[in-house]
Amino acid sequence: MFFSKTFFTTFLLSALALGAPLADPDPAADALEARATPAPPATAFGLVAIAPGTPIHQHRISASNSGLHLLSPNRDAQCGPDSTQRRPFAAFTLRDGGQWFLWDPKTGSRRQQLWSDVSGMGQGALQYTRDRREANGLNKNRITTEEFGFMGAGTKERPSYLTWRGDHEFIACPSAGGGEGAWSVWLSAGVAQPGGNKGCKKFRARAVELPKALGCKYSN
Questions:
Q1: CA separation for the pair 112, 213 (Å, rounded)
Q2: Domain ranges in the chain?
Q3: Does pLDDT of 17 surpass 60?
């Protein structure tokens, strides 16, 4: 039986209480160079999929509908002080304890946190919350929100990659119909084809500095 990531999202949330090529212009970034990341940076970073020989190679990660995607630029993120500006790709930050957030320099209820269910049921489903209140309600017995970090020197020769518990591999799965369309992003939890998907590919998420990133509210 085929289970899509949408099914997993609906199930998990009830139980708990789209990227363009690297060469595409992105006004939020000065340059696509990995930053040195010996500790969580105070500024924003983007993520580029590194998976040579696959359709997702050198495409940037976006965020919409509570999940992360490749080959699908953001279409509904509300960015900037007045929430009227648009950015095609997601910006992130790490905080104390390796907590991973969507970038927003504001504090309070707008903060959107990344989380994953790496249990046998969740299989690494990777989602983000609507706000701080929802983040505080996550079931920490099943959900992981910490231990994200970086690996690498942050140079051209040794770029930095996002990790979870020291593992730098993530998984991307194509849309159910195959061919063109968004790929969903999953945390690597020991399942090669999570959620009953087919054609999934492992990739590394290279961190790129976004010194001019705008804070955004991403859709749920």
A1: 16
A2: 5-22+42-217
A3: no
